[in-house]
């Protein structure tokens, strides 16, 4: 009995020490991470002033050094004006955002969702609405009243990566958005791609889905490399959802995960996990890929992810240290709604935390970047 009590006390002391080490580790060493990021939808034109204030008063003092703005079609493209959303950002709006970030040495990276996420609920996004011939699954019609799950397995539409004309348009968008944001990096999204290699597609049907996914990554990466730019993507399609138990959202159940061994090693992986602090950053690092861990709404999960990233980096070999790049808070509501919540307005309610006042994007952000 005495020996058991001794062992219990010893374990408690060790755990207490680790907890204290973890807390001090995060507090004192977050600035050692190469990437301390914040990802949010680009503000509408009418919200640029408020967002610039947020950059000055919140992002900069918290030592954020990377801002990923999900632009998509919220910009008045000059090469493809037919794709711009109503009320989209102008070149002058973007110049002001870029200037604010430059003042604080914040690297700004625009995102346009490519391959997947070409629709949302019952609405087609601009690319497939204007160029329906690019649709991977034209036989799947957009419903008037969208529900999930559905008989078509429709979450979001994809474009066909083998369509002979799609990349001419895609490359124009990439080039223009990188030029106007004066950046050397581009985020292509590429998460949650459920429609790929569809059997009814005359080009993709019957092809290996992993090779199709990897081929699109290489195509985008190689085009960016011509201008000295790097590609960032979300990492979920590169994880085996069945073996890991991560499922169809945070990982792949349609066999794209094998693409992890087929893509260039200079692609930056944004590894998102929102309900658990899964250790997949180590997996990506051991595959020779740089990785950023990405939380969303749970402060306790986010702080564990931060501690993990710091610990992985601190204990890694000199070859592996550069792989552990940092952490990036993700925001999945429009910028104006987030700013209202952040400054004490109504809490953003989503399908996962209707009654939960602790698990919010605001609390998660403040827990990581104190």
Automatic annotation (TrEMBL):
InterPro entries listed in its UniProt record: Beta_hexosaminidase_sua/sub (IPR025705), GH (IPR017853), Glyco_hydro_20_cat (IPR015883)
Source domain of life: Bacteria
Gene3D superfamilies membership: Glycosidases
Pfam families: Glyco_hydro_20
Residues covered by the Glycoside hydrolase family 20 catalytic domain: 82-295
GO cellular component assignments: membrane
Active site (UniProt): 192
Zinc among keywords: no
GO biological process: carbohydrate metabolic process; glycosaminoglycan metabolic process
This protein's UniProt keywords: Hydrolase
GO MF terms, alphabetically ordered: beta-N-acetylhexosaminidase activity
Substrates-to-products reaction catalysed: Hydrolysis of terminal non-reducing N-acetyl-D-hexosamine residues in N-acetyl-beta-D-hexosaminides
E.C. designation(s): 3.2.1.52
Family indicated by similarity: Belongs to the glycosyl hydrolase 20 family.
Protein name: beta-N-acetylhexosaminidase
